[in-house]
């Protein structure tokens, strides 16, 4: 008996009063959310449909006469390697710059620096690519030789040193410069939002400024730093022109960062191959694009997971 | 433990604005001193100048002498960081570090002083400090949980535990109960009575009953009008201030006739 009455009550909840404005806003927000999902699903569907012929084709028909996996794997390796180098260089630098802007620099200088960083983000990637190949590549020759001479026992610097400087290292550094502004901008915004209360709590305990940053600012900004880094990583993974211009790619799978034998990246490879491709070759390139799409999704999911794992301690409660 | 504080003709500025003018007061060791007065009269500013937290605000500065057992806290070569390790502070709103567990919150200050402490030594310190703040029984089973999950009153006692864990000489409290309910307030007031055995306590409060309940001495701050600096009107034993103050303004304030 009790269950049926409960059901009756549950079936007819009093309709909540909703203003027209609220209803319009809720509807449009929901619509925007759905639209994003639809677009994403559309992109995925396109990639899968176009990649299908390459996936089912026999290896002999594919460019290079290799299996699809053998074709894409070195590209995946190159893509991740370049993006990781960029991330390793850019993240600490971006955090340092953001901390300087928010906690060390005098106010007027901080504002100017902030604008400058934002401006860096607006430079087209082709310009970075040209700068990389024309300025950075020749400029790193000395450094590469030095690294090879003194750190040559590390697989990264095994050599032989590339004479043109169009190496993985230069690509990584160029990408790092490219993603620096976005990571800095995100980190800066988060650091600025650190509650004064927590900063003062640390200072009142006798923390120096650096200790205060470690106790209050960095833990609070942790999820922001990760989000920023993932945004940067996304850009680095997908960067096309800079890589295509700079890298002298041979398709080798190697950790050697300073030789002329380099793996290409997915995006760079598509940019270089697409104009001359027809038929199944195009499908193969799109299949590699699908892999990039999946990698990007995985990276973002991982970032979400890392952020959520310590949600309890995030300070949002 | 518990040192004397002597302010001698202290002027406190925000940039070029003189916020508090000519404060001279002596605070005896191991007593509770309450600072009362209307909003904006500079009592919190004065409190924050005692542990040099005032100068954290850009442009803020202090003139005059402020002594802790005869040693000038604003003397040349004195590191404000060192001053703050001797003089603990509890803020108006409870502010445990949200990213740290209860345990880590308590030893946060100790970690700054002494990086390498044995596990059992820190365990003892945490228990001692939490017991000192009357919080141990409530949290002993969830020391690894975040401090922000506690109630407001518990959070404030956690902040007190954090402050006393570094064994300061003085404990400053800036309206520590203004964000708490009456029961939590009572818990903190009881705690203040126990803490004065070991520490010199200075507390800013808007609640005159609270000042009357917890303090041995009371200083009354006032302000002539907006834009004028605040100043110390008089300071005396709490019962004198509340029964027969020397100044008319003090009498008006404590009897609720203005402010």
**Secondary-structure element series of chain B:** EEEHEEHEHHHHHEHEHEEHH
Question: Beta-strand level of the residues of chain A, as a percent range?
Answer: under 5%
CATH class of chain B: Alpha Beta
How would you name the CATH homologous superfamily of chain A?
MetI-like
SSE string of chain A: HHHHHHHHHHHH
Quaternary structure type: heterodimer
Largest sheet, strands/sense/barrel of chain B: 6 strands, mixed
Structural class of chain A: mainly alpha
CATH superfamily of chain B: P-loop containing nucleotide triphosphate hydrolases
**How many distinct beta strands of chain B?**
10
Pfam family, one (chain B): ABC_tran
Domain ABC transporter (chain B): 5-248
GO molecular function (chain B): ATP binding
Keywords (chain B): ATP-binding, Nucleotide-binding, Translocase, Transport
Brief overview:
The complex is a heterodimer of chains A (317) and B (259). Chain A is mainly alpha-helical and 317 residues long. Chain A has twelve helices and no strands.
Provide keyphrases for this structure.
heterodimer, A: 317 residues, mainly alpha, 12 helices, B: 259 residues, alpha/beta, Rossmann fold, six-stranded mixed β-sheet
């Amino acid at each position: 008996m009790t269950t049926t009455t409960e059901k009756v009550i549950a079936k007819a909840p009093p309709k909540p009063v909703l203003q027209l404005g609220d209803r319009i806003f809720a509807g449009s927000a929901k619509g925007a959310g759905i639209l994003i999902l639809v677009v994403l699903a559309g992109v995925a569907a396109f990639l899968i449909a176009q990649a299908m012929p390459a996936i089912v084709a026999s290896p002999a028909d594919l460019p290079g006469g290799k299996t699809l996996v053998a074709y894409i794997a070195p590209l995946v390796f190159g893509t991740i390697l370049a993006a990781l180098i960029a991330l390793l260089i850019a993240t600490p630098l971006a955090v340092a710059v953001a901390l300087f802007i928010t906690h060390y620099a005098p106010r007027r200088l901080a504002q100017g620096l902030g604008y400058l960083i934002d401006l860096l983000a607006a430079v087209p990637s082709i310009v970075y690519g040209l700068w990389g190949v024309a300025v950075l590549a020749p400029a790193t020759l000395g450094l590469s030789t030095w690294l090879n001479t003194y750190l040559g026992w590390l697989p990264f610097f095994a050599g032989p040193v590339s004479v043109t400087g169009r190496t993985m290292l230069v690509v990584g550094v160029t990408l790092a410069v490219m993603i620096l502004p976005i990571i800095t901008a995100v980190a800066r915004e988060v650091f600025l939002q650190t509650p004064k209360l927590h900063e003062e709590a640390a200072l009142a305990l006798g923390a120096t400024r650096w200790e205060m940053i470690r106790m209050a600012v960095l833990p609070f900004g942790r999820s922001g730093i990760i989000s920023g880094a993932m945004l940067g990583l996304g850009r680095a993974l997908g960067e096309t022109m800079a890589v295509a211009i700079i890298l002298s790619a041979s398709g080798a799978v190697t950790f050697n960062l300073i030789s002329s034998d380099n793996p290409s990246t997915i995006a760079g490879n598509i940019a270089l191959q697409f104009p001359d491709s027809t038929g199944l070759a195009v499908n193969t390139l799109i299949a590699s694009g699908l892999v990039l799409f999946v990698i990007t999704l995985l990276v973002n999911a991982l970032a979400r997971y890392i952020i959520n794992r310590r949600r309890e301690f995030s300070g949002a409660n | 433990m518990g040192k004397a504080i002597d302010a001698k003709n202290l002027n406190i500025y925000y940039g070029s604005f003189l916020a508090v003018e000519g404060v001279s007061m002596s605070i005896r060791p191991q007593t509770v001193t309450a600072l009362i007065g209307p909003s904006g009269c500079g009592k919190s500013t004065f409190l924050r100048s005692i542990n040099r937290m005032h100068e954290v605000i850009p442009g803020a500065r202090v003139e005059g002498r402020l002594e802790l057992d005869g040693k000038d806290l604003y003397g040349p070569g004195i590191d404000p960081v060192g001053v703050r390790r001797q003089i603990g502070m509890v803020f108006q709103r409870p502010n445990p570090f949200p990213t740290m567990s209860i345990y880590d919150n308590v030893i946060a200050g100790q970690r700054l002083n002494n990086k390498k402490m044995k596990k059992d030594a820190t365990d003892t310190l945490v228990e001692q400090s939490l017991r000192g703040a009357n919080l141990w029984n409530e949290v002993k089973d969830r020391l690894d949980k975040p401090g922000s999950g506690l109630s407001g009153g518990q959070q404030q006692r956690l902040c007190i535990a954090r402050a006393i864990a570094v064994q300061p000489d003085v404990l400053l409290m800036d309206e520590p109960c203004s964000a708490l309910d009456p029961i939590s307030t009572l818990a903190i007031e009881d705690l203040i009575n126990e803490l004065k055995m070991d520490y010199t306590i200075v507390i800013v409060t808007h609640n005159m009953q609270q000042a009357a309940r917890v303090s041995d001495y009371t200083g009354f701050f006032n302000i002539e009008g907006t834009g004028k600096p605040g100043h110390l009107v008089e300071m005396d034993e709490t019962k004198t201030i509340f029964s027969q103050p020397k100044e008319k303004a003090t009498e008006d304030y404590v009897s609720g006739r203005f402010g």
